[in-house]
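Sample pair:
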Amino acid sequence: MPRPNSVTLRFLAEPSQVNFGGKVHGGAVMKWLDQAGYACAAGWTGQYCVTAWVGAIRFLRPIAVGELVEVGARLIHTGRTSMQIAVDVYAGPPTSAEHHRAGHCVMTFVAVDPEGRPAPVPPWQPETPVDLALDEYARRLMEMRASLDREIEERLRWLDQQRPAVTGRG
């Protein structure tokens, strides 16, 4: 049986998820993104996976209590022990077929063995034009992330050098 390379979660936005502005709290949406991403990664690998990176979460429109929420996660690239998962959130009235994109992100998950060490991931080969475009999107994001990581590390080293030494309390 082929491994599933996508998953969709559907549920109603609940009153317990409301922020002070009366819409679903961004933290609830971030939890949904992580849950759908994990379900997709674990389904593909058949093993436990951990979130290693979440990139550029985009909140595109608010989600109201009572809306039907659909969180779709799709594998878009595999490495040796990691995989890139694109996650999209759609929401709209449960009485309508018209739902709008409410959020998007790309996440990196790493498969881990029972001892918690990175484990090999089954390779995924893009076949359709959409798969090929998503794989290229994932590769570009990985390059940008690596460049950003280098810049952040350089800046943190510089900041650490500027920090005064901590002395004991007097």
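The helical segments are 26-45, 129-162.
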